[in-house]
Specification:
alpha/beta; 41% helix; two-stranded antiparallel sheet; Uracil-DNA Glycosylase, subunit E; 6 strands; globular; 184 residues
């Protein structure tokens, strides 16, 4: 209980943070999911535009594909006691010429180390984006995935090894972590 209280205190500070408010015309409404019991960390770039409307990360075709890759239901994916969702930037960074802009660095600098310290039970980190990969030094077992966006269909089509080798291993490993008594 004490660890969750600490997490709640840090989350209250994150939600009140305005470090990059002047650079985000659509507002600073942080979108992340964290609980000290989480066993898997999904680390990525930043919330997309749709998140501003739903307040649910990966609530789109990319999320459907990611949950399929992990072999988990929506309920499991959005259960903070199972899966933490910690993007590099907590806010939608706006659209650039070829997709969303990179996440602003303020979130990672101010909060990432403090939030990761609240996750003592992590067994697997799933990295999505070059920005998340830059913080690789902290993580336990780590897997780097391409972004599950339909924009990556070309890459997925031309890299069959990903579906043939990586996804079956991932779909075996995730239940081993989340439900160890059922995996024996």
């Amino acid at each position: 209980m004490e660890a969750n209280c600490i997490t709640a205190n840090i989350m209250a500070k994150v939600r009140a943070c305005k470090l990059c408010a002047d650079h985000l015309p659509l507002g600073t409404h942080p979108v992340l999911q964290i609980n000290s019991a989480a066993k898997i960390l999904r680390a990525g770039q930043a919330p997309g535009l749709k998140v501003l409307q739903t307040d649910i990360p990966f609530d789109d075709a990319s999320g459907d594909r990611l949950r399929e890759w992990l072999g988990v239901t929506r309920a499991t994916f959005y259960n903070a006691r199972q899966i933490a969702i910690l993007p590099m930037g907590f806010f939608y960074p706006r659209t650039g010429t070829s997709g969303d802009l990179p996440p602003r660095a303020e979130c990672a600098i101010a909060w990432r180390t403090k939030l990761l310290a609240q996750l003592p039970n992590l067994q697997l980190t799933v990295l999505i984006s070059q920005y998340a990969q830059a913080w690789l030094d902290y993580f336990p077992e780590t897997l780097v995935l391409p972004h599950p966006s339909p924009r990556n269909n070309f890459w997925l089509k031309h890299n069959g090894w990903f579906a043939d080798e990586v996804l079956p291993a991932l779909k075996t490993r995730v239940p081993e972590i989340l439900y160890p008594s059922q995996s024996n």
